[in-house]
Design brief:
It is a single chain. Helices cover 32% and strands 26% of the residues.
């Protein structure tokens, strides 16, 4: 099947995400209203031209090695096409290396962007629906990032539960968080590569710790969607946070202080950022006060994003 590319620029927004949320290791994610903006246009010139502004602009490559470009190429291959070339402009708002899903956003955003660059009107409707739907996109994305928690949240928005079946194929469901729940991020200056955080995890866990997290993971679905008053107990973890204390001791200490004050705090993803889920208006003031006891933290109240990666009109000038 021969595909036609759109001739005009295409714009996609993709949200940050906080994974694990305490007990839901590698399976639960929450989309956050901080968005990377990706704009691309097909060109007749071969190769890619990459422009980057914002987070990571001085660290990321500007060629085929850029993570968004890699994701786009893989998505184009999955659709059976490659443009002769394209220009990519990234305006990054998601902090890198801080457990907020920047790599998942790049992968999902790049694949959603590639999909949007195909002229759907030129494809038979039945074929367009199966060409590269969300299920296929997630299955393709998992080849670039082995766990689906951040990927699912970046793709679907809201609160997601994701898994891999016995063959390694991903699945995900999206749930609507309770309207009163807000996320408060406490972001450090320091960064931490995800691979470093995963290297220190133990090879096995006890039945007691597994039981603890199984119960809290189930409770978290109920607490986050229907009963925010249970969020403190629902965000308790025994599997991964303490195991990683050696690579982000300040973050673990902050989580302990926040939970000591009755706040539903957890490490965000692989860290070192911390996330607090709350429905209490005065919680932000409490969090700011506790975070201020040590320097180097930035506190940000963030709305939960109801949308995952999506095409958005180009902003008009003037």
């Amino acid at each position: 099947m021969s595909l036609v590319f759109r001739s005009e620029p295409v714009r996609v927004l993709v949200p940050a995400s906080s994974a694990n949320i305490g007990p839901g290791f590698d399976s639960m994610g929450l989309a956050l209203s901080v968005y990377d903006e990706l704009i691309a246009m097909v060109t007749e010139d071969e190769g890619v031209l990459v422009e980057v502004a914002g987070e990571g602009e001085h660290e990321v490559p500007r060629d085929e090695n850029h993570l968004v470009v890699q994701a786009m190429r893989i998505a184009f291959d999955a659709m059976g096409c490659q443009p002769p070339g394209f220009v990519l402009r990234c305006r990054n708002a998601i902090p890198h290396g801080r457990g907020l899903g920047s790599s998942a956003a790049a992968i999902i955003g790049g694949m959603a962007l590639a999909r949007a660059m195909v002229e759907q009107n030129a494809v038979p409707e039945a074929s367009a629906n199966v060409l590269f739907d969300d299920e296929a996109l997630l299955a393709t994305a998992i080849t670039m990032e082995s766990h689906p928690d951040n990927l699912a949240a970046a793709l679907h928005g809201g609160f997601t539960v994701a898994w891999l079946d016995d063959s390694g194929h991903p699945g995900a469901v999206r749930l609507d968080p309770h309207e009163a729940v807000r996320a408060v991020l406490i972001v450090p200056v320091e960064t931490l590569p995800t691979v470093t955080a995963r290297e220190v995890l133990p090879d096995s866990v006890t039945y007691d710790d597994a039981r603890h997290n199984l119960a809290r993971s189930a409770l978290l679905v109920h607490a986050l969607t229907r009963a925010p008053d249970l969020l403190f107990e629902a965000t308790s973890d025994r599997l991964h946070q303490q195991a990683r204390a050696g690579v982000y001791p300040a973050s673990v200490e902050l989580v302990e202080r926040l939970r000591g004050a009755g706040l539903a705090a957890a490490i965000s993803g692989a860290g070192p950022s911390v996330v607090v889920l709350t429905d209490q208006a005065r919680a932000v003031e409490m969090i700011e006060s506790i975070a201020a006891e040590t320097s180097g933290w930035v506190v940000r109240e963030i709305q939960i994003s109801g949308r995952g990666a999506h095409e958005s009109p180009l902003p008009t000038s003037g």
